[in-house]
């Protein structure tokens, strides 16, 4: 499985099955999902595309992987919160600057719970954490707050 950030949209996940069928899921920022299946004879031709609400996507996940659902796991959408990955571009205004300089929590109410850099993760980075292009910030907050955070972090 590979993933591709889609700025302003969400994240696209691609999978090629053992039978060489290509599938993709676009996880939209609003919580909805678009599931697409491509033709076997032409992997660039979409044979099926279905837009699912976040509730429909949850139901499909339950049907596909019932053993992976645990009532002990935090379901952020039920609480009005979302968790997202936001990638910092190499040309970002924030590249080389301190996390505290973004004023993320003050401006958006969003918490940055981790920063992924190459093969390492920094949980709960403090305001003195220096950002770098390519960092993936794991943020949690309201849908509106996460969208505002994406705009701030997308500044070049």
Shape: globular
**Percentage of residues in strands:** 35-45%
Question: Helix coverage percent of residues?
Answer: 10-25%
What separation lies between the terminal Cα atoms? 30 Å
Largest sheet: 5 strands, antiparallel
Helix count from the secondary structure assignment: 3
Task: Give unreliable regions as ranges.
Answer: 68-75
* Integer average pLDDT: 85
Please trace the helix and strand order, writing H or E for each element: EEEEEHEHEEEH
Going by helix content, strand content and strand pairing, the class is alpha+beta
Radius of gyration: 17 Å
Question: Biggest sheet, strands in spatial order?
Answer: 1-2-3-4-5
Looking at this protein, list some descriptive labels.
156 residues, alpha+beta, 3 helices, globular
Report on this structure.
This protein has helices at 54-64, 104-108, 143-153, and strands spanning 2-6, 10-16, 22-28, 33-38, 46-52, 82-87, 111-117, 120-123, 136-141. It starts with a strand and ends with a helix. The strands form 2 sheets. A 5-stranded antiparallel sheet has the order 1-2-3-4-5. A 4-stranded antiparallel sheet has the order 6-9-7-8. A hairpin with a 7-residue loop joins strand 4 (33-38) and strand 5. The protein has 156 residues and is an alpha+beta fold.
